[in-house]
Design brief:
heterodimer, A: 10 helices, 79% helix, flat, B: 442 residues, alpha+beta, seven-stranded antiparallel beta sheet, 32% helix
Chain lengths: 278, 442
C-alpha cells in the first residue's frame, strides 16, 4: 500500500470514528437503540479500515506501528476502538463507554493525521526482541488505564445524571460492578505498566549497559506507576471506593498520557526518538 | 526502646505509605527539570526513598504474619466467628429447603474450596493470592537494597581500544570512570579488539562499525564476540558494549639517532554530530635533560566535509596536529606546533623526533561491572508475580450457617475479602436466594 493510498484509507477511518461518535451520543441521548447499534457497527467498520491502513504501512516499511507520533497515537486509537467495540458488542448496556471512548479515539487519530508521516527506520539500537515486549505491554497498560478512566467517568456520570441520560444509564450494571470493573482495569494496567518498565530496563541494559539512567521518559513512566500505586493503595488500604476511587482513577490518566506523548515533546531525551524521529 | 512500638506504628501507617509514594513521585518529577540531573543523588530524594523502603518493609512484615495465619487454616471457625454467624451475620437470606449440602454445591460452582459440617459450610478461594502481597512488598524492599548495594560496588566507564591491540582493565585505562564507594577493584583482564569491521548488516539493519572484542587473562582468551548495540559481550559480572568509535594515532618518539624512546597510541575522539576531533589527547614525557614536556595531539578535521559515522577511510588520510609545551614551574613554553600525515615526523625542542606512524580506528567500549543486574531482574519477576497474585487472585472466604428459628429457615452469612470487597459474597447470596426461592416454588 502506497503512502497516498494509506492516507486516503486513514481519512476513511477518521470519518468512520466521527460518525460513530455522533451515532452513539445521539442514540443514547434520545434513547434510540438502533442508532446505538449503528454506532457500534460504524465504529467496528472504522476500526477494520484503520487496521488495514496500519497493516499496509507495516508491510511497506517493515516494522510495526511504534515509531513517530503518527504511528504510535494512531495504533493506540485503534486498540481503544477495537476493545470498546468488543466490550459493547458483548455487553450492550456498556454503549455509554463507546459514547465516551469514540470521541477520544476520533480526536487521537485526527491529531495523528496532522503529524508528519515520515517512515522511520528501525535502527541498530532499536533492533531487539525487547522492543516488541516493551511496546506491547505499553499499549496494553495504556489501554487498560483508558478503560479504567472511562468506567470511572461512567460511574460519576451516573451519580449526577438526570432525565433521559439517567434513564439510559440505569440499564448499566449496578454501580458496585462498574466500580469493581474500573478497579480491575486499573489493576491490570498497573501490572502491565510494571512489566513495560521492567522490560525497558532490561532492554536498556542490553543496548546501553545501564538499566536505569533517570532519563525523562523512564522517570515519568515510574512517576505514572507510583501514582497508580498510590491510587491502588488508597483503594486497598484506605477504603477509597466509589466516587473517591473514580476521581483518583481519572486524575491519574493525564500523568500516564504525559509520559507517553508530552515528555518526548517537552524534554530532550534519547528515548524521544520513538515519537519525534531521529 | 520504648519508642519502638510507636515507630513501628508510624512505619506501618497506610496514610504514610500513600503519602510517601506520592512524595517520591513528586520528587522524581522535580529531578526531570533540566539542570536538576544530580537531584536523584541528593538527600532530599534519597531520604524519602529510604523511608519508603522502611515503611514497605514494616508493611511487608505485617502482611506476611497475617497471610501466614490465614493460609495456615483458611476456612477455620473461631469462637468469635461462630458467635458472629449466629448473632450478627453480615447477610441473611431465606434458606427455603436448602441444606448444607446444597450450599456446598453452590460454593463449588463458584470455584471455592469447601469444608462443611451438618449446618455450617466454609468456602474459600485465592489462597495462593495470600502470598502475593508479601511477595510483592518483600521483592520491592530487596530491590531497593540490591540496587543500593549494586551501585555502591559497581564500576562503569569508557575504554578506548585501538583495532588490533588490547588494554588491561584497570583505572588508568579508562578515559572516563565512575566507581561506587565500596568498589572492590579492577579485574586486570585484557580487553582487546581483534578485528574491526567498517560495517555489518544483520537482518537488513546496518549495525555500524563493529569490533570483535576479546577478553583474555595472561594471554589466554576467555571470550570473543562481535559487539554492537543489543549484543554486548558478557564475562561474569562484566558487560562490554560498543559505545562509539574514533581514531587512534600510533605516535612514537625517538632520538635523532633512531633510538626508540617511547611509543604510544593517542586516542582521538569524534563528536557525534561533526565526526571531527573534539579534544586533544595529551601525553607527558621527560627529555634527556630531565625537562618535562606535555605533548598534545589532535586530529585535524577533514577539509572536505564530514565523513559518515561508518566511514573509517579517515584513518588513511588522517592528519594530526602535535604541540609540545613545557610543564612544571613557570609559564608553559609553547615550543613547537606542526601538522603531520601518516609517516611524517617533526623535531621536538629537545632534539628528539616525533613520528606519526599510523592511524587505526579504535573502539570506545563501555565497560560495566555490576553484580546486581541479574538479582534485580529476578526481583522484578518475583515482584510482578506477587503483584499479579495479589490483585488478580484475591483471597476471599465465606461462612454460611443454616439456621432455623420459630419455624423459619435462614442462611446466615459472614464473609471476608482481602480487599474488603462485598461483591463476591453478595453474588453468592443472590444465587442462594434464587435457588431457595426456586426450591420453594417447586
Amino acid at each position: 500500500m502506497s503512502l497516498t493510498l494509506e492516507i486516503v484509507v486513514m481519512w476513511v477511518a477518521v470519518t468512520g470514528y466521527a460518525v460513530a461518535s455522533v451515532l452513539y451520543i445521539v442514540g443514547l441521548t434520545f434513547n434510540l437503540p438502533r442508532l446505538v447499534t449503528a454506532g457500534l457497527i460504524v465504529s467496528a467498520a472504522g476500526g477494520i479500515v484503520h487496521l488495514v491502513a496500519i497493516l499496509g504501512r507495516w508491510v511497506r516499511i517493515g516494522h510495526g506501528p511504534y515509531l513517530g507520533f503518527y504511528e504510535v497515537i494512531s495504533s493506540y486509537a485503534l486498540v481503544t476502538v477495537l476493545v470498546v467495540a468488543l466490550l459493547v458488542w458483548r455487553h450492550r448496556p456498556l454503549a455509554v463507554v463507546g459514547a465516551a471512548a469514540m470521541p477520544i479515539a476520533f480526536l487521537a487519530i485526527g491529531a495523528a493525521m496532522l503529524t508528519p508521516k515520515g517512515e522511520l527506520e528501525i535502527t541498530s539500537r532499536l533492533a531487539s526482541w525487547w522492543l516488541g515486549i516493551h511496546v506491547t505491554f505499553a499499549k496494553l497498560s495504556y489501554g487498560a488505564f483508558i478503560g479504567a478512566f472511562v468506567l470511572a467517568l461512567v460511574f460519576l456520570l451516573r451519580e449526577r445524571a438526570t432525565g433521559s441520560l439517567s434513564e439510559m444509564l440505569q440499564k448499566l450494571p449496578r454501580q458496585e460492578i462498574v466500580d469493581d470493573l474500573s478497579f480491575r482495569f486499573l489493576s491490570v494496567g498497573f501490572i502491565f505498566l510494571g512489566i513495560m518498565i521492567g522490560a525497558g530496563a532490561i532492554w536498556a541494559n542490553e543496548a546501553w549497559g545501564r538499566y536505569w539512567a533517570w532519563d525523562p521518559i523512564e522517570t515519568w513512566s515510574l512517576i505514572a506507576w507510583l501514582v497508580y500505586a498510590a491510587v491502588l493503595h488508597g483503594r486497598l488500604t484506605l477504603g477509597w471506593r466509589g466516587r473517591k476511587f473514580a476521581w483518583a482513577a481519572m486524575a491519574a490518566l493525564p500523568i500516564v498520557l504525559f509520559a507517553l506523548v508530552g515528555v518526548p515533546i517537552v524534554y530532550q531525551s534519547i528515548h524521544g526518538a520513538y515519537l519525534t524521529g531521529y | 526502646m520504648r519508642g519502638l512500638p510507636a515507630l513501628d506504628r508510624f512505619l506501618r501507617s497506610r496514610s504514610l505509605a500513600v503519602g510517601l509514594i506520592v512524595l517520591v513521585g513528586v520528587l522524581s518529577a522535580i529531578g526531570t527539570v533540566p539542570g536538576n540531573e544530580s537531584f536523584y543523588g541528593s538527600p532530599l530524594f534519597v531520604l524519602p526513598l529510604a523511608l519508603l523502603t522502611l515503611a514497605t518493609a514494616a508493611c511487608a512484615w505485617e502482611r506476611t504474619a497475617g497471610a501466614r495465619r490465614l493460609a495456615a487454616d483458611p476456612g477455620s471457625v473461631s469462637d468469635a466467628l461462630a458467635n458472629r454467624l449466629r448473632e450478627h451475620p453480615q447477610i441473611v437470606v431465606p434458606a427455603g429447603d436448602l441444606t448444607a449440602d446444597d450450599v456446598v454445591r453452590h460454593l463449588r460452582t463458584a470455584r471455592m474450596h469447601v469444608r462443611s459440617g451438618p449446618t455450617l459450610v466454609a468456602g474459600w478461594a485465592g489462597r495462593a493470592g495470600l502470598l502475593g502481597s508479601p511477595l510483592f512488598h518483600w521483592s520491592l524492599v530487596a530491590l531497593f537494597v540490591v540496587i543500593v548495594l549494586g551501585q555502591a560496588t559497581a564500576s562503569s566507564g569508557l575504554i578506548g581500544v585501538p583495532a588490533g591491540s588490547s588494554v588491561v582493565e584497570r583505572a588508568e585505562s579508562y578515559g572516563k570512570l565512575e566507581t561506587g564507594p565500596l568498589f572492590l577493584g579492577h579485574t586486570r583482564l585484557e580487553l582487546g579488539v581483534a578485528e574491526w569491521r567498517r560495517t555489518l548488516v544483520v537482518d537488513g539493519i546496518d549495525r555500524g562499525p563493529v569490533p570483535t572484542v576479546t577478553i583474555a587473562r595472561d594471554g589466554r582468551e576467555l571470550e570473543r564476540e562481535l559487539v554492537y548495540a543489543n549484543r554486548p559481550l558478557r564475562h561474569g559480572t562484566m558487560l562490554v558494549h560498543m559505545n562509539d568509535w574514533g581514531l587512534a594515532a600510533d605516535v612514537s618518539i625517538e632520538t635523532s639517532g633512531g633510538e626508540a624512546l617511547d611509543r604510544f597510541p593517542v586516542l582521538v575522539d569524534f563528536a557525534d554530530d561533526t565526526r571531527s576531533a573534539t579534544r586533544p589527547a595529551r601525553v607527558e614525557y621527560a627529555d634527556s635533560a630531565g625537562r618535562r614536556w606535555r605533548l598534545s595531539v589532535r586530529l585535524v578535521p577533514p577539509a572536505d566535509g564530514r565523513p559518515a559515522s561508518n566511514d573509517t577511510s579517515t584513518a588513511a588520510d588522517a592528519i594530526i596536529e602535535a604541540r609540545a609545551v613545557t610543564t612544571g614551574p613557570g609559564t608553559p613554553q609553547d615550543a613547537v606546533r606542526d601538522r603531520l600525515s601518516i609517516g611524517e615526523d617533526m623535531s621536538l625542542p629537545d632534539g628528539n623526533i616525533l613520528r606519526f606512524n599510523d592511524a587505526t580506528p579504535y573502539a570506545r567500549l563501555s565497560v560495566v561491572r555490576d553484580w546486581s543486574v541479574w538479582p534485580i531482574y529476578t526481583l522484578l519477576v518475583t515482584a510482578t508475580i506477587g503483584l499479579a497474585l495479589s490483585l488478580l487472585l484475591p483471597y476471599r472466604a465465606i461462612w454460611v450457617l443454616v439456621t432455623e428459628r420459630e419455624g423459619e429457615r435462614r442462611l446466615h452469612i459472614v464473609h471476608r475479602h482481602i480487599r474488603r470487597e462485598r461483591l463476591f459474597a453478595e453474588t453468592i447470596a443472590e444465587s442462594l436466594t434464587t435457588a431457595a426461592e426456586k426450591g420453594t416454588q417447586e
